[in-house]
Predict the 3D structure of the following.
Amino acid sequence: MRTLRCYWLTLVLGLLPLATLADETLHYPADPTTDAPRPLVVHAALDLPQIEPVLQAFHRLHPEVELTYRNFTTLDLHQRFLKAPDQADVMISSAMPWQYRLVNDGHAREQLSANARAWPAWARWRHELFAFTFEPIVMVVRRELDERYGTIQGHADLLALLERHGRELSGRVVTYDPASSGAGYTYAIEESRLSPRYWELVAALGQARAQLVDTTDDMLEGLIEGRYLVGYNLLGSYARDVVAAHPELRLVVPDDYALVTRRLAFVPQHAPHPDTGGRFLDFLISETGQRLLAEQTALGAIHPALDGPGTAEALRRELGDALRPIDLGPGLLATLDDLKRQALLSRWQREFSRYTAAPP
Amino acid sequence: MTLTDSLYRRLLTWLLVPLLALGGLMLLLAWSEARRTADRAFDRLLEAATLSIAEQVQWQDEQLWLDLPPAALEMLATDAQERVFYSLVDQAGRVVTGNAELPGDPRDDSASGDTRLYRDIEWRGMELRQGVRRSRLEDWRLRERFEVRVAHTREGREALMKELLRGNLAYILAMAAVAITVLLLAIRAALTPLTRLRRAIRARDPRTLEPLTLPLPRELAELRETLNDLLARMRRVRANQERFIGDASHQLRTPLAGLSARAELALRQEDPARWREALLAMQTTSAKTARLAMQLLSLTRLDNPEYQPELVPLDLNAIAREAVREHWSQCQRSGVDLGLEASSSPLVVNGVDWQFAEALSNLIDNAQRYGARCITVRTRATPLTLEVEDDGPGIPAELRLRMLRPFHRGDEALEGSGLGLAIVDGIARSHHATLNLEAGQDGRGLRVRLVFPEAAQ
């Protein structure tokens, strides 16, 4: 089983561009006046611009900490941890199933600070794994599409649009490739569980010869360039800033259902500096840290005391029951089941090529 | 710290210790029962999860295939957010899928019997509860066997167990509190009559010897009766003492009155010859009175239970010889044949020498006074005996016991204090010897024997 999974990981990893460490590392040296600097190593799959305000604020608060932040892709991060579980003090990743699996296997340290105890039950697991962001999965459309076919607000609109104008939109729709992207696979399995009509949507996407890519950035790039008219299942936190900067794009948070993914953080059992790691994790879920996330990043804050733009509370008020946060529970283990993955991918492939003689 | 012995404490200990042991046993039972109940409740989850997984197992692409139902895992996670592990193993023991290589059912027999197994395992340092289900594909031709293994941590079970135990604990503690309270009250109530008895005894006039009459439970009533017996004996002793004092004062008053009358009579005379005669008579009387007073004193001393003289080893032969030597000349004068029959070897007895001398002198005096012509002082080795035999009138068998009472004389006409035999009896008792009065040789006369126990040597 282990070999199978490793094989899969290697396969997927091979398809992804490896993050270059030099560009993806931030280092904050300890205040030279402190006698004993306290090292802290954060390994994460979270882009630097998003996390930088948080790191700066933390370092201001604890100048004695010598902070090293390394950003990886989710798969690289996971594999690295399995190889050497004693290097990082904090693990942050948006790949919820993998994070969950590591913690389920007992790789995390229990956190019992006041903040950790008060953290809402739906955003943590066993006081070991903490969700600290709230990022809806969205669609991005070019405004010219709205002008030509009318605005789309949800999955039903998208399905109707694809079914009606599939030919015209051929090659102009983009989404994640579930076979090569971990995030795409996670969304696919969650959506297939949420609604049986998801398969109709996949078939319609196939009919429209939707382009399959591996990252949200790829999709946004194509949308900005005008290669694509509709992007489906983009990570809202990354899309928001880009859309704000490009008036020709429009962000659609689906009003029928919107998946919400959450970044998960934990302190590894064999962390070299578990105290500092615990303090950083505590800062992430503290009101101060969460306010930073809400106000200075697009990640979205969970803290129940916070309200206003960029908080889960505001999003929930806006969308109500349509929000579907991916459940932080053992269902994520099923997501990682090898047979399940094979079954889902073959079904996905079958549905995607339902209306086309040969798969793209 | 040494604890003083107390009935209250004894009762408390003997009742509390078994009670506490029982309570401990109940706790232990409650604990194991709670654990069993929790396991039973949660094992149903293992059963349901393995079943729902087993139902999804199919044959596809020439191998076992499983479309893992997430609900099965969520079921296992419970409210306590357990860690969940699962694996599907084919009949060759190869893991088809799963997130953990859990151990299998070690039992061989899978064709018949129980196809399910629940047990506690330790896996990678975690305490897990495992459920294993053996099953097979229900296809027409394919009957491939497989095993579904699931496991989860025990937190939910522990929580349920603690909850059950808390309920039981409250119940057991309440019962223990009631039992201990009742116990304390019961012991106190049971010991109350003892306090009443103590108060009744303490409140008594120290001079009274009246029996106790307060009502008491059976066990204490026995004690009360025993006390009353003792009091009755003390009453008799006191009556004896009072009579003795009465008799003694009477005995002393008579010679003193005689002395005083004699002196008065002599003072009316002018003749010195009469005076001398009176003085002689007074000397005899006062010597007799002095002897009486001495005898009374020694008797009182012998009767005093507090008086315990130091006993030293003495030879009975030497004592007998000494007594004979002392009385021989006087007996010779009054024509009495005083003889000694001593044992050949020394007879050692622990005793007080002056008391033996006193006893022998009393016996010899008595024999002489009651008209014996031949007196023999004798010692024997077996049994250890000191005896005085005479050929006087003797004492009829039915009166012998009465002769031991003070102031009791065989013949009222004869002079004497009537204390002699009583003193001998007292001496015998203080030496733990037996005093026997019996007829002498040929049924004549009197033989008084002091038989010493073997231990006195």
About this structure: The longest helix of chain B spans residues 218-268. Residues 218-303 of chain B form one domain. The interface with chain A takes residues 65-71, 73-74, 76-77, 81, 83-87, 95-101, 124-126 of chain B (CB under 8 Å).
